[in-house]
Design a protein that fits this description.
Layout (H helix, E strand, L loop, with lengths): L2 H6 L23 E6 L8 H19 L3 E6 L5 H9 L3 E4 L14 H8 L9 H8 L3 H8 L7 E3 L11 E5 L13 E2 L2 H9 L8 E5 L5 E8 L3 E3 L3 E3 L14 H5 L4 H4 L3 E3 L4 H17 L5 E10 L5 E9 L9 H8 L4 H13 L21
Parallel strand pairs: 1-2, 1-3
Antiparallel strand pairs: 4-7, 5-6, 5-7, 8-9, 8-10, 8-12, 10-11, 12-13
Helix pairs in contact: 2-12
């Protein structure tokens, strides 16, 4: 049966009432959770190697919690979609966080296809993921709602209209691709020099006011109610003594680099009032951006003229890394959760809410290509 025929086949999967298998209960397809993943074992790119490890972590965690995990690789021939439609899992755990065909700007296509196919999946829907990953548009929107964000400019802005220092970063996506200490520029001349070196085929860039303050991370898991996880901070060490304190690509992914070794994230010891303000800003942004099931926000703490400390949202990741050693799992660990419990909570959150889009019913019309 072709993928189109499978799409047209009536499937009664719009309502989910399952809350997970009980001890001793037999498992059939209603307990199947498909893990849609990417990656290659031993790949030279650490993000791609990590994505392969992630599916192994998720498989183990789901099995520990009584689910029946089935790994499905996000191939370039769309066999993954046909596999999922034939499998008819209770849920798809969307672990494809490296973009479609490893293009970060196409990452929202994955949840878009899953929703169009009537597959219930974890995480944020296509539109919300696309909008939240646009660091220019989403910041302007959040600013209009009273969420503190850095001032932003498009990359082709007149350098003399920009307030320095600024950090030059990709407008879309995450993982800090292409970012290093040189991304922070302190005047119009330095910005011109930087932009002159940008390749013609580089992704769209953004200028963002650089806030040279402590960096903290907030996160949530769940659906009505959601749970705010313990806040972490980045502990910048001696490697950053003579360079801007930013988490660039080397800090996040090159494990033997000074930047990686000298930028661990640790539980933040914040005053209760400041912690509440960070959590409130995170919750407001989460609701405004329509983020589902889990998400992570990165904040800089800016000291105002009156001495008050203001949390400023610099990045929102609607699809953060779920691997065992990643920030979200470590935050959950401080909250007292095991890794398996974190993953199970994400699954339960998705099952507790409606799917992102109703199943397409064949009675609504044939969507196959019409005969010529």
């Amino acid at each position: 049966m072709s993928t189109i025929e499978l799409l047209l086949e009536p499937r009664a999967r719009t309502k989910r009432t399952c809350t997970g298998p009980k001890n001793g209960e037999s498992m059939d397809n209603q307990w199947v959770v498909a893990i849609l993943h990417q990656g290659q074992p031993g790949h030279s790119a650490p993000t791609i190697a990590n994505a392969w490890t992630l599916q192994a972590d998720l498989t183990e965690a789901l099995r520990e919690r009584g689910w029946q995990p089935q790994a499905v690789f996000l191939d370039t021939q769309f066999l993954w979609l046909q596999t999922l439609l034939q499998m008819a899992p209770q849920l798809v755990l969307n672990a494809a966080d490296l973009g479609f065909f490893y293009d970060m700007t196409l990452e929202p296509i994955v949840p878009g296809v899953l929703a169009a196919a009537g597959l219930h999946f974890t995480g944020t829907g296509a539109y919300a993921e696309a909008f939240s990953s646009d660091k220019f548009a989403s910041k302007l929107y959040l600013q209009s709602l009273g969420v503190a964000v850095p001032e932003v400019w498009l990359a082709d802005a007149d350098p003399h209209t920009v307030t320095y220092p600024v950090i030059v970063k990709p407008r879309f996506g995450h993982n800090s691709y292409g970012m290093d200490a040189d991304c922070v520029v302190r005047d119009a001349q330095a910005l011109r020099r930087y932009m002159a070196k940008v390749p013609a085929n580089a992704p769209d860039l953004l200028l963002e006011a650089f806030i040279d303050g402590p960096e903290v991370t907030a996160a949530f898991v769940g659906h009505q109610p959601s749970v705010a996880l313990p806040i972490f901070r980045v502990d910048f060490g001696p490697a950053f003594a003579n360079q801007p304190k930013i988490l660039g690509y080397r800090s996040k992914w090159i494990e033997d680099s000074p930047e990686y070794l000298d930028s661990p994230t640790v539980p933040a010891q914040l005053p209760e009032e400041l912690r509440d303000r960070v959590d409130a800003a995170m919750a407001k942004a989460t609701q405004a951006l329509l983020i589902c099931d889990y998400g992570r926000g990165d904040f800089r703490l800016r000291t105002l003229d009156d001495g008050q400390v203001e949390p400023v949202l610099v990045d929102y990741n609607a699809n953060p890394d779920l691997s065992r050693g990643a920030g979200l799992a470590r935050m959950a660990g401080v909250a007292g959760w095991t890794y398996a419990e974190l993953i199970d909570r994400i699954v339960q959150s998705a099952l507790a809410r409606p799917p992102h889009r109703p199943v397409v019913d064949a009675a609504q019309g044939d969507v196959a290509t019409p005969a010529s």
